[in-house]
Design a protein that fits this description.
two-stranded antiparallel sheet
Length: 194
């Protein structure tokens, strides 16, 4: 049997995604058992989730994007702050979360705080969309306070933590699916808290 590098990488990626999914499902079950509250909004049904991912190199986050897309999330890709703001202007009501890197090339120059700039523009424009920052461990340490003060929902260097934050916000989490019950009239009924 022979596997080329692409096939081997794909198989490993699938196994890693399966493991990450199981870890997140277990975390959801533990949160349920501990009675943690979950966020219920009109957009929390799995098929409705749309995420705007802003980075100059989406292939660097291919595994995370693939994981989300396999779960039925529509991932909209933007390469710059300007492009992201244009997308938000047209589609803000249908975007549930924004994921951005911290540093990227903007206007042909490296901007080490592009994600912070995007975050501030999103908040200053009055958008309530939650923004998650995915950056290096050093940048998380250095800029975490500034990012949170500017309104970031969270900042992390861990893809697993990022997916966990999104799940905690209601993204396709098994407890979310159990929690949402639609009655005959179509009203959303929140779960009883333990």
């Amino acid at each position: 049997m022979e596997l080329n590098i692409g096939e081997a990488t794909s198989q490993i990626a699938d196994h890693v995604l399966d493991l990450e999914k199981k870890v997140l499902e277990l975390k959801c079950e533990i949160d349920d058992a501990n009675g943690k509250e979950i966020k219920i909004t009109a957009k929390t049904k799995m098929k409705d989730w749309r995420i705007l991912w802003v980075t100059e190199n989406h292939t660097f986050h291919a595994l995370e994007i693939d994981f989300l897309e396999k779960d039925g999330v529509d991932v909209i890709k933007a390469n710059t702050t300007k492009e992201a703001m244009e997308i938000l202007k047209d589609e803000n009501d249908s975007i549930d979360a924004i994921i951005t890197g911290l540093s990227r090339k903007e206007n042909n120059k490296n901007n080490p705080k592009a994600g912070l700039d995007l975050l501030r523009k999103v908040k200053n424009a009055g958008y309530s969309t939650e923004v998650y920052v995915m950056c290096s461990p050093n940048n998380v340490k250095q800029y975490y306070g500034q990012l949170k003060a500017a309104g970031a929902a969270e900042a992390t260097s861990s893809p697993l933590a990022l997916l966990g934050f999104l799940r905690g916000a209601g993204l396709n989490c098994p407890r979310q699916q159990r929690a949402l019950a639609i009655n005959d009239v179509g009203n959303i009924i929140a779960p009883k808290t333990v």
